[in-house]
Amino acid sequence: MRPCPMYLCVCKAVREQEVLSLADLESGLRMRDLRERLGVCSECGKCGQRALDLLRTLGRNRSGVRVAPGSARLI
Ligand code: FES
């Protein structure tokens, strides 16, 4: 059974994994980057807080520690 993808932004069908993959390529991601590149928070805005939480968690863990998709917790 395949794991259910955790959507960060339902309106644009953006998965948390897509944000994590982008963060692997580029450090210092900001909300503006997520909006411009993936469309996160460009429709209803309900994903905004979750996206900010994810970015903050990524910012705290730039030392290479990964974040579990869907939980913003360390793995
Ligand atoms: S859930 Fe992301 S803009 Fe609506």
Task: Please tell me about this protein's structure.
The chain is an alpha+beta fold and 75 residues long. It has a single domain (7-74), classed as BFD-like [2Fe-2S]-binding domain (Arc Repressor Mutant, subunit A, Orthogonal Bundle), CATH 1.10.10. It has three helices and four strands. The protein has a two-stranded antiparallel sheet. A two-stranded antiparallel ribbon has the order 3-4. Strand 3 and strand 4 (73-74) form a beta hairpin. The radius of gyration is 12 Å and the shape is globular. The two termini are 21 Å apart.
Can you give keywords for this protein?
75 residues, alpha+beta, Arc Repressor Mutant, subunit A, two-stranded antiparallel ribbon, 4 strands, 12% strand, binds FE2/S2 (inorganic) cluster
CATH architectural grouping: Orthogonal Bundle
The CATH topology label is Arc Repressor Mutant, subunit A
Q: What general form does the structure show? A: globular
* Run of helices and strands: EEHHHEE
> What's the level 1 CATH class?
Mainly Alpha
The total tally of domains equals: 1
- Number of helices in the DSSP assignment: 3
The chain-level mean pLDDT equals 83
The CATH fourth-level homologous superfamily: BFD-like [2Fe-2S]-binding domain
Question: Radius of gyration, Cα only, in angstroms?
Answer: 12 Å
What is the rounded distance between the termini? 21 Å
| SS elements, strand count | 4
